[in-house]
Structures are given as structure tokens and as C-alpha cells.
Amino acid sequence: MEEGWSSVGEKYVCPNCFDDYAVKDFIESHATECKCSYCENTSEEPIAAEIDEVLSFISEGLHREYEDPANSVGYCSAEGGYDIEPDSSYELFVELGFGDGPQTLFDDLVSAFSDCQWVHIDPYGLPEDEALGYSWDAFSEQVKHSARFVFFKVATSTDEYSEPEPYTILENIGKIVTRLALFEIIETGTVIVRARQHESTKSPNNAADLGAPPKVSASQSRMSPAGIPMFYGAENEAVAFAEIFSNDPTKSCMTFGNFSTLRPLTVLDLTAIPDVPSLFDPDGAHARAALSFMHSFEASATGPVPHDESQHYLYVPTQVVAEYFRHVFTFPSGRKIDGIVFNSSNVPNGKCYTLFLDNTQCTDSATASDKTLLLSNFRLATIDFPNQTDA
After folding, report:
1. Which of these, 131, 161, 189, 255, is most buried using a 10 Å CB contact count?
2. Rounded to an integer, what distance in angstroms lies between the CA atom of residue 34 and that of residue 40?
């Protein structure tokens, strides 16, 4: 009664009756019976836990994010209802995917919580992941269409109760990636492939030509505006090719260069964001909002951008984020990061690198102690365009 549910009797349930990994794990660790009351699965070893213990575990998880509307929502007697319409247990359990299991189990779950109604905790506010997403959207809109170079000085409202200024999302992202430890050490000797598409008579053949462009030649890219060089590479030639290929027959060649790291590099790794944990995971549920936001942010920041006149401003939000991590973000020790790793928008599971390096940090000499990337070898390839017959 204190937890808000009622017993459904002496029944036992096995992990196969649930899809949620945390509920499965709980049942496996509390199994005492060899037969499931719902799917009738049997075994010589205990496979099913007492349903009342499972109900208590589910109740604990539900109360991490939901509560009784009587605790926080206004009630209008004249209208005969709450200001915010609560969900019934049936509606909530369908949303959580419990309806995918045996119907008798779903019926018992709904029956056990039949007296409950549910609203999100702090129902008049946005859930944390939605609030972060709203802040990111507002920031993106501001730097794309309102104030690009002085956004941190532009007040959006004089209302003391207004939302935080959009630029605070940068600090929040920094705090989230630190809390989630989304950093990777690229060890010395790691090979990163860089590619350059070019005319057949203009083949690069050294680190200066094939590495990060000089300042005067640095064009706009996903994470760097024109005039600010960064080193873009990939984990292999296939990904490097897909990232830079242009259907321009005048540039019929592509040179691939293997660059080896000469020192360990610390990078923000957007390819290693863990899955959003279950609401019922007692160890991971605290990170649900942050991880949900980071997945949305990663998709927004690294998704495909059309190659047209809109490209110059669609890249701006990620360019600002990259500059934040390059120049502002530091670890408690004062150390800065060396770049960002992200998923290719053209190759599934392909890994791309943006390193905060300029042309002077790329070298052909293995004895160069003050450099970061060594061009170990390169390869010239001819592109076979679909409309070519002699390539």
C-alpha cells in the first residue's frame, strides 16, 4: 500500500515475459521457481521470481520519474479534473512497452496499479532532456539567424523569470560530457586517413600538401568556418572517400594519406554515447535525461547537411560547439582536448575525426618532436565516375 500497488496473488514470472533489460536482470537475480505462471516456461533450475517482488521493483522505477498528480497538480472542482490530464496505469504501461508481453501478465500489472494515476515529476516544467533540447534548438536558431559573433552578449529577454540565455547550453554540454566521461585517448601510433580529391595534374605528395590546410586555404567544413584550419580524417579510406567525394569529373583523382599520431590525443567521442538506460535500472536511471539529450544532440550535430547555399549557416552551431571545446572547455587539471570524433553521415558506423591542428602540426619526419601527425604513406587513386567510359 505504501508503494501504491496491490498483490495479485501467488504467481511467478520469468525474464522472457519482459523486454526491459533491468526487469529481466532483477527477475534472474531473484528467481526461486522453476515454472513461469504466465508463459508456462519451465526449467530444472529456478527461472521465475515472485510477481509481488517484481511489482515492488517496477514501482520503485516508476517513482523515479512519475508521481501521483495529487502531489503536484492543481485540481479544479468546477471542471471535475486535474489541470494536467494524468495517465492511467494502463496508458503508462502501454507507453513503457509492457503490453508486448503475455496478456495475462499485462492484465495483472494494470490490476496491481489500478488505483494509480501518473504525471511526470515536476509536471509544470519540461523534463530535463526536453529542456536541454529546447536550449540547444534556441541556441542553434540564435547563431544561425540572429547573433552569430556576439551571441554571448545578446540578452534575449529582460524578464527575470525567463529561460537561461541560449549560450549556456555550451556549458551544459561540457558538464554532461564530463559527467558521462565521453572522452577517448587516441594512443600514439594510431593511423588516421585523410583524403583529397583533385585534378590529375595536382597530386599532393607530402604532409604540407595533404595535411590540414594552411589558414589562407581553409574552407568551411562541418566544425570549422573558413579561414580556421582543422584536420579532418577518418578511420579508413572508404569513410574518408565518402566524406569528401564530389561528383566533379574535372577532379578525377583522390589521394589518401595515412597519418600516424606522434603523441596521445584526448578527444570528445560522440560515437561512444551509451544507450539510454532503462527507467528501472537502479544504477543507470540517473543518466537517462543526459543520455537522451546527447543522442539527440549527436544526431543534430553530425547529420547530413545539404551542399547548397544554406550550408554556410547550417554548419554554424556545430562550429561554435567545436570552438567551445577547442578554446574554452578544460578538464579540472587545466588540460584541453585535441579534437572530436563523430559518426560519418555517409557511412553507417563510420568514424570521423576533427582534430584541432593546423598545417604546421603535420610532418613527413619521424624525428619531429614538436609535431602531432606523421604522414607515414600515401596512395593515389583514380575515381571511376558513373558517366566515364575510360576511367
Report:
1. 255
2. 10
Question: Which value, to the nearest 10 degrees, does the dihedral of the CA atoms of residues 322, 328, 330, 335 take?
Answer: 90
Q: How far apart are the first and last CA of the chain?
A: 77
3-state DSSP percent of the chain in helix, strand and coil, to 5:
35, 20, 45
Question: Which one, of 276, 258, 242, 254, lies nearest residue 350 by Cα?
Answer: 242
Q: Are the CB atoms for 197 and 251 separated by under 8 Å? A: yes
Supply the range of the domain harboring residue 284.
184-382
Domain count, the chain: 2
Element (H, E) at 23: helix 21-29
- Its pTM stands at 0.87
Q: How far is CA 213 from CA 94, 201, 230, 274, in A?
A: 54, 19, 8, 34
Domain match, 292 and 192 both: yes
Spatial separation of the C-alpha atoms in residues 302 and 217, rounded to whole Å: 23
Q: What is the pLDDT of residues 182-231, one digit of tens each?
A: 999 999 999 999 999 999 998 898 999 999 999 988 888 889 988 999 99
Measure Cα distances from 390 to 70, 137, 241, 246, 263 in Å. Answer: 76, 48, 21, 19, 43
Q: What is the pLDDT of residue 155?
A: 64
